Amino acid sequence: PSRVQSSINIDAKVAENYVNEKALKYLKDGEVVIFVGGTGRPYFTTDTAATLYASEVGAEVILMGKNKVEGVYDSDPKLNPDAK
């Protein structure tokens, strides 16, 4: 089983609102939790959200689907050729 949680309001048929306690319960019950919607705050990337949620739930790994990007960078590699 899986759950989708979002930091921004999305149709309940698509995702429920992110609540840390619920995410932890789902994970404890063996469910997969997919976090969407970034942080819900401007100027933060979805990479930032991924690391934030991973930290909050004690994740051991972060799995991200990226389009033409080789991983998590310290800045946008499309804008910064020196991104690491």
Automatic annotation (TrEMBL):
Top-level taxon of the source organism: Bacteria
SUPFAM superfamilies per UniProt: Carbamate kinase-like (SSF53633)
GO biological process entries: UDP biosynthetic process
Known EC number: 2.7.4.22
Domain Aspartate/glutamate/uridylate kinase: 14-84
Keyword Flavoprotein: no
Keywords, alphabetical: ATP-binding, Kinase, Nucleotide-binding, Pyrimidine biosynthesis, Transferase
GO molecular function, one term: UMP kinase activity
First-tier enzyme category under EC: transferase
Keyword ATP-binding: yes
Pfam families attached to this UniProt entry: AA_kinase
Family named by the database record: Belongs to the UMP kinase family.
Entry-linked PANTHER family: URIDYLATE KINASE (PTHR42833), URIDYLATE KINASE PUMPKIN, CHLOROPLASTIC (PTHR42833:SF4)
Protein's recorded name: UMP kinase
Organism: Mycoplasmopsis anatis
Designated gene of the protein: pyrH
